[in-house]
Amino acid sequence: MVEVDSIVEGKVVGITKFGAFIELDDGSKGLVHISEIANHFVKDINDYLKVNDRVKVKVIRVAPDGKIDFSIKRIDEDKEYEAKLEKSRANFEQKMSRFLKQSQEKLSDLKRCQEAKRKR
């Protein structure tokens, strides 16, 4: 059985005007709704998928009756999210490094001032 949020590969076995049916290697089937094909408006699924195409899909829901909902666009959304997260980490590390450098400089200046006052 497939798990929600897992990314799996399957074969397009049917296309309708509202989505495409995908069959996984284990024989289970699910639907990629037309709204889950791409991040923009999709007028005709046939512009994106053909029967017998092999596609990677993300499992977004498994109903109690076993029906599976897939998404193609959310695979890329996860990659975009990870890229943004990595960029945020890099920005944070740069800011932290700059802060530490400034703090060290201020501490050094403070120590010099204190030593100068003691020598007077």
Short description:
The chain is 39% helix and 28% strand.
Structure explained in plain terms:
By secondary structure, the chain is α+β, with helices and mostly antiparallel strands. The protein has a domain at 7-75: Nucleic acid-binding proteins (OB fold (Dihydrolipoamide Acetyltransferase, E2P)). The protein is built from one helix and five strands; from the N terminus they run βββββα. The protein has a five-stranded mixed barrel with strand order 1-2-3-5-4. Strand 2 (19-24) and strand 3 (29-33) form a beta hairpin. The longest helix is centred in the C-terminal third of the chain and has 47 residues, at 73-119.
Please report which band the strand proportion falls in: under 5%, 5-15%, 15-25%, 25-35%, 35-45% or over 45%: 25-35%
CATH class of the domain at 7-75: Mainly Beta
Give the neighbour order of strands across the main sheet. 1-2-3-5-4
Q: How many helical stretches?
A: 1
Spell out the helices and strands N to C: EEEEEH
Structural class: alpha+beta
Mean pLDDT: 90
CATH architecture of the domain at 7-75: Beta Barrel
Backbone shape: rod-shaped
Would you report the number of β strands?
A: 5
Could you please say which CATH topology of the domain at 7-75 applies here?
OB fold (Dihydrolipoamide Acetyltransferase, E2P)
What fraction, in percent, of the residue positions are helical?
Answer: 25-40%
Measured distance between first and last alpha carbons: 80 Å
Query: pLDDT below 50 for ≥5 consecutive residues: which ranges?
Result: none
Largest sheet: 5 strands, mixed, barrel
Radius of gyration from the CA trace? 27 Å
CATH superfamily of the domain at 7-75: Nucleic acid-binding proteins
